[in-house]
Amino acid sequence: MIERQAEQHRYVAFLDGEPIAFAAYRDAGENRVFTTTVTNPAHGGRGYAGLLVEAAFKDALDEERTIVPQCSYVEHYLRTHPEWEQAFEERGLLGAS
């Protein structure tokens, strides 16, 4: 399950009720700056970070926020998932990292 914790500026992935990964961001004006993505090593390589980023991207698009990927994982995710990069570029919502 993915949960947005807006007051803490993060998305958290839970497995069996326990947090196993998070993606942190900060909002700066119209920008949503993704600062870090962390997965518990015991759960790495299973796609949880990708699920977090997709949930965060969907919300950013819905809110018409420009994404700024300062986190290397988010930057990598954009490069390897061109459909997301295109979705943000088409709306003029892709900022420089």
TrEMBL record:
It comes from the Bacteria. Residues 1-97, 3-89 form the N-acetyltransferase domain. PROSITE patterns: GNAT, GNAT_YJDJ. SUPFAM superfamilies: Acyl-CoA N-acyltransferases (Nat). Coiled coil: none annotated. GO terms for molecular function: acyltransferase activity, transferring groups other than amino-acyl groups. This is N-acetyltransferase. It comes from Sediminivirga luteola.
